[in-house]
Amino acid sequence: MxxxxxxxxxxxxxxxCISEKIWRFDKNTGELIGFTSLGDISNQxxxxxxxxxxxxxxxxxxxxxxxxxMVKGLFSRLEFPYVYFPSRNVTGYLLFGxxxxxxxxxxxxxxxxxxxxxxxxxxxxxxxxxxxxRRYLIHKTLxxxxxxxxxCFFFFSDPPHLLKTVRNCWASPTRNLWxxxxxxxxxxxxxxxxxxxxxxxxxxxxxxxxxxxNLTNFSKMRVDLAAxxxxxxxxxxxxxxxxxxxxxxxxxxxxxxxxxxxxNVGNFTDGKRQKEDISKSILFWKRL
Length: 288
What we know:
- There is one protein chain.
- This protein is α/β, with parallel strands linked by helices.
- The chain folds into 2 domains: 6-17 and 64-157; 160-287, no CATH class.
- The chain has helices at residues 42-49, 92-108, 122-129, 159-171, 186-198, 210-213, 223-229, 232-241, 247-263, 278-287, and strands at residues 6-16, 65-73, 79-87, 111-118, 140-142, 152-157, 177-179, 182-184.
- It has 10 helices and 8 strands.
- The protein starts with 5 loop residues before the first strand and ends with a helix.
């Protein structure tokens, strides 16, 4: 496979380990099971090797999370994890060096890295702010590995994270959303759900369950629940049965359904719907 001049995106994330003692350096076998550093690790590894026993390992030398840089092609199916960093208490400042070192190595191998994508974690936002003189959240910066400065480097938020954020704002009782004088309310969705469950026969929204509408701290983090709520079927149900008051809510759901579809495909053909357009079914039911 010719990997020259590939156009890539660099994504990075921080994953917490189940136990703080999962990653460690085995002084007897010399096997590197884990370490904590995003910079020079020589001194830390040497101190671990010289420790008399495992119980004497300093807590700061044990990692509790894993930082991963993932490379993904924009116009190809090239996708692979580029580097792992077992780490502890990572900050945006510590992430800055390895981040640009990874980009530089990819550029030297003739990969054109156009940007990065990450979730809204505080360390990721801090990393982005470091590229602004006034520490603002910016969407692009100069790529120091492009000599003619014709290609900028862009920062993108992770689409699943944005989808969860939108759903959580919509469901929050402390937020009031309006558009053109009409309310965008979570209660409209609850009304449709309750009505479909109370009537006999076919269920209007079979994918929606109790957990979709009654969110907990855990369910707020699930992308599948957010995608099921902000979907075309929910938008059409609100349009058909929600009444005039729910029309702006239906439009709101439809916009973010299309937004997620645009960003959740690898090429132009992946987003093509294979089934008959649901709008034709809506017209049929309206005639009854």
